[in-house]
Amino acid sequence: EVQLVESGGGLVQPGRSLRLSCAASGFKFDDYAMHWVRQSARKGLEWVSGISWNSETKGYADSVKGRFTISRDNAKNSLFLQMNNLSTEDLAFYFCVKDLSPITLVRGVGGFDVWGQGTLVTVSS
Amino acid sequence: DILMTQSPSSLSASVGDTVTITCRSSQSISSYLSWYQQTPGKAPKLLIYAASTLRSGVPSRFSGDGYGTDFTLTISGLQPEDFATYFCLQTASTRALSFGGGTKVDNK
Predict the structure, then answer these.
(1) Which chain B residue's Cα is nearest to A109?
(2) pLDDT mean for each 10 residues of chain B (108 residues)
(3) Burial category of A42 from C-beta neighbours within 10 Å (exposed 0-12, middle 13-18, buried 19 and up)
């Protein structure tokens, strides 16, 4: 069964850090680009960051650039999101997402065909 | 950045109706658009990619059309399980991907 399972969410104070992880199974992880997408009542669905199959291409939404870092470990079928200097604006469910394509941010056909169940990040003092 | 504008933000329809949702991009995205369905408490599901290609397993009552800046998702013969929120996503940008604001389809 194709599956993505996120972990690492929780309650954190403003200015602190959190690291999200995503464990992939049921497909050849290193054949596909991967993304983080978040969803909040205030902002709806928001693409956060994406990474190509070989980690050569990475991209970030302006709202997280310089604070968040995406990475992957193909040997361990895992995706990560290091989130630093968190603010209340980052409060959301964070989804790990598989792309249809091995590459991303190259003006091409893509799509998010597998989603995790999401992990909640709450930023509050 | 490419802004995706979806309309309407909500609509009411009945089982059997044909529903059309529109997504407009702030610049041309060729056919690099996909559509998603989300029900409460669940993650979104991919319905259509490359503007008009139906994902395997998705009912044929769903169809997508468009190129450039204007796109539509049509549900022909709405079923009870289709009451949900629908989103579009552009994958044309080399800087940042972006979703539309969503369209909630509820039961009239």
Answers:
(1) B32
(2) 97 98 97 97 97 97 98 98 98 93 96
(3) exposed
